[in-house]
Amino acid sequence: MFKKILIANRGEIAVRVIRACREMGITAVAVYSDVDRGSLHVSKADEAYHIGPSPAAESYLRMDKILDVAKRSGAEAIHPGYGFLSENSKFAQACADAGVKFIGPTPQSMEMMGSKTRARQEMEKAGIPFVPGTSRGLSSPEEGEEVAERIGYPVMLKAAAGGGGKGMRLVHSREELRSALESAQSEALRSFGDSEVYIEKAIVNPRHIEMQVLADEHGNTVWLGERECSIQRRHQKVLEESPSPIVDPDMRRRMGEVAVRVAQAANYTNAGTVEFLVDQQKNFYFLEMNTRLQVEHPVTELITGLDLVHLQIRIANGEKLPFVQEEIRIRGHAIECRIYAEDPDNNYFPSPGKITRLLAPSGPGIRRDSGMYEGWNVPMDYDPLLAKLVSYGTDRQQAIMRLQRALYEYFVAGIKTNISLFRRILRDADFQAGKVDTGYLGRLLANQNDGGPPQGPEPAIAAIAAGLFAVLDPASSGNKDGNLGGIESVPSRWKQKGRSEALR
Amino acid sequence: MVYEITVDGKPHRLDLDKAEGGWECRLDGREIKVDAVVTRRDVLSMLIDGHSYEVKRERTPTDLHMWVGSTRYGVELRDPRSLQSRRTMAGDEKGPKKLVAPMPGRIVRVLVEERSEVEAGQGIVVVEAMKMQNEIKSPKKGTVQKILAAPGAAVNAGDVLAIVE
After folding, report:
1. ipTM of this model?
2. Which residues of chain A neighbour B5 with C-beta distances below 8 Å?
3. DSSP string, B27-60
4. Is A473–B57 a contact, with Cβ atoms under 8 angstroms apart?
């Protein structure tokens, strides 16, 4: 087994991988940028090395610096987490060249799946079902019009190198196609340095359901159940659950078998995720494969009882999968909320800054993977994901109730978070009935008057509390100087006493 | 002690007196007996008639909020006998208003020039954080007296970006 692993990431995922290393008796090496010196992953690691200024392009995306730390520290393997260099085949290749094991698939598999059109071509050969359309970039608007005529409107234009909704356009009619294609191509060029755009039939109100796969380096590939990821805001996942409310055992097995075929067609190794679009008739179509550990992997861990990071490390170490498909059991239900530093009252604007108070939930069926702590300054330089709150229950109903209970206990002050958004989703009747698709969250947010939480005698409670705070906890009651915690000057007890006597 | 407290825009008057085993509160004339303990800074445990409430206080450079359970209330608190709050009260109505950064970030653009006339809600400065741009808007209609933000500069939450009079 590896003696030392470098984690080329930050935040909650770096902490999560460090924990797995510690559990396996492996020394964990962290890297950090200027602004991350005080971040949780640095203090949780066994060793930590500075790799440069705060912007990711000068630190977490610098392959040379990360490989240099691997060499200096004697790390034998690198876990890339998600984001940053995790899906960069050049980095995987650079690791191989430097004699360091990359914990993930081979550069060849990553490259094949990195281009959506190339992935489609390969999957077409392997007989994988995917959404009708072209497997090559469009050469002209005329070609686009001709294909759209054949598969029928509405159609979706997508960037071959794309992701996160960039270079993507929904086209309802022939008249819109030409200008939509031009703008998609120029956006794709700006965002990814590649203007290749292809066309697909648009599926109206699809679900986004993905299948976790795991492959060792000896030709064994298994599937570990699906994750329902339809609840998205601007193409970013917000809440995920497993199992999906609409997937029955037969559909799960069929999706799993297709996902295994996808992985095998790509000679895939290690953990990966095959994403599907599912239409209203429950037909599923291959969308893309994510060649890394997903943010939402904990829901799969909870319902299978497996530790995906342990398994990733064992696979990278050359071990065989310790089980076969028939031994995998799915039990219970898990739901994950992505806690972001963003302001629900201000159009979900990022909200970095100092966390002045943190009360975190725990208790039965609650797992919290967090990269934050009280007193930490959330930097403005990276993704706003702070923590993942995951609930587990015997069934979906219990998982929802536990998550509601945990969200009630969760309190983060000093910065804004989207915790209130989850309270809203979890009490929504459509969500509770499992009626979600990728348009669900947009519709929920557009509906301003859903009543909100029931109002009791709480305004009176708030008024009384405000007064009592001013009397009982005055050291920190002033907010005029902008001093938000840290070391505050405590006024003399004599002065306080004198003042309250005078006011009597 | 007497406080004038506004909760979500609604004014209340609160009288607090220390009593045996807690506090005698008079909220808008209504008598309420409260047992209150600060369990940690900004967290208050209150027992009222057997009911337990955990109230959290959240302060930003511009606002004060009380969280009762998972509901947030915007609160303003004034001690009518305090000279300072009387002074700030008077200053609130007229005179110069500060435009403060609601979050740490980097100044991307300044949208107006000093001495220019602005409407309430008009964007004055653009601040970028976590790869998103946010327009900081004028708190009132008036003249931009001073701009303290320079493009490219880093700012902290609460920093004054401009003054509108």
Report:
1. 0.74
2. 463, 466-467
3. ETTEEEEEEEEEEETTEEEEEETTEEEEEEEEE-
4. yes
